[in-house]
Fold each of these.
Amino acid sequence: MINELAKIMPDIHFSPGERFSWSPAEHKITYTPEQIEADGRYALLHETGHAILGHSNYTTDVELLKMEVAAWEKAKELAKTLGLKISEEHIQQCLDSYRDWLYRRSSCPTCGTNTLQNDSTNDYRCFNCHTEWEVSPSRFCRAYRTRKTETEFVLL
């Protein structure tokens, strides 16, 4: 499968590693060889979807979720050209991890209301109690939130 994808994407380098990922800076897709025969081939197609779509940066959490959905749609197209089918259940389980992550990050630390991220600052502000908080820029870490107060930040 790696060879077939390399033919489709000759400008992308495929490299074994510890997890599946797309690096736009290096034009490289990293994959876990021992997982390719199982569901790893779907993850490989998904990361190739990111590459084909030119995904590089996102500014908000919702934008990241949209990119993930688009990469899965592209992965389904790639799978079809390779004679494979990715189950919708598998895709939705993968997307659920992002939806759960987004839900935790968008939950107000004071009252629990879910809100939207501010596009200009990437902070959150509660519609209900007006608490403001920041979240870690990393999508790979737990949903840490830091509440803004008048004079300092309080780690929650």
Amino acid sequence: MNERVSWQVCASCGQELAASDPRQRCPACRGLLELRHRAPPMTHGGLRALLDSRLGVRRGPLASGVWRYRELVLPEADDSLVSYPEGNTPLLARPAVAAWAGVPELLLKHEGHNPTGSFKDRGMTVGVTQARRVRATAVACASTGNTGASLAAYAALAGIPALVIVPKGQVAVGKLTQVLAYGARTILVRGDFDACLSLALAAGERLGVYLLNSINPFRLEGQKTIVLELLQQLGWEPPDWIVVPAGNLGNTAAFGKALREACEWGLISRVPRLAAVQAEGAAPFALSYRDGFATRHRVQAHTVATAISIGNPASYERAVQAIRETDGVVLAVSDAEILEAKAVVDASGAGCEPASAASVAGARQLVRSGVIRKTDRVVAVLTGHLLKDPDVVLAYHQGTDAPSPRANRPVEIEPKLEEIERVLSARATP
């Protein structure tokens, strides 16, 4: 046992499994599994130096913003990785967004710059690599869109058949288009995401397909690298807060694990606080937080932020641990606040999908309530690309019912130069 580099541990009962075991839950108690790694065999300064030496690599596995951290993610993997590459996403300073949120030192970690347009690619490169390592005959997931798009792309890259199960009529067209285009077998379920996940879990257990939802511990290893990369971009000087949208809670769990390990392995000397932000219409985790996590709440999810429209989060227990270990907070913001935050982010030139903007709306709410101080250094994570949910964008800017003051309506004109002059004059008027 002492020779192993990585292994799986049940978060509930502590039972250990080999890293190569394809089961998704603990065989003893049905608890969620977590991947553990032996500490890297180098000094703290040596680990930082090793990771920093890989910055700017242009070819091969180390060109990936995930596999650059391979000793911390999946040290036993060889170079036959399933990678585009992914990661290497920007950490953006947008003064207009920071001013709106009320905290001058707000930065945006934009995961929409990944190959399929969301952070899911970080988890999927590791998950599909592991599927190849265990010789999976097929991979599957339940999805509100981004997971399915990413799974379909990485499965196509690996040459493994993919099954994507989605709630009918509840997936944005930009995301469903990707799933279909990348060639995944797509199942439309007459139900919500939670019904889809139940089907996916049953398919994993009874039909032998390898499930790649966020309960998969290898997915979370990839998603950890969002935090590792932003810490490296900050010269390993942690911010005071990391704010993240929260739906199925995979990122919340992954971020907590990343920060715990980064501190244990000497990459950072202190741990920033996590803020997990849900939409009010899909806020079971926020409800549980309010009563000290005494009750695990479930809700019927309804929100414009489809990527976090989840009523029974799969990574609940691991996310509770992350919030407790980081002295974190959980909150909910309204759809109106999400859409206003999105309009501000979009107008800054960054752009994001609706669920992404929950982090910025949440940061603003925490500043206004005094939880985040105006002098704090904050990183808000944008999880997806602007074009992931184009219908919501068009409805916001072109809708006729109670239009938002931030709506950017198109103007219809006759083909005359003076009409252009009129439009420009109107825009210049305060």
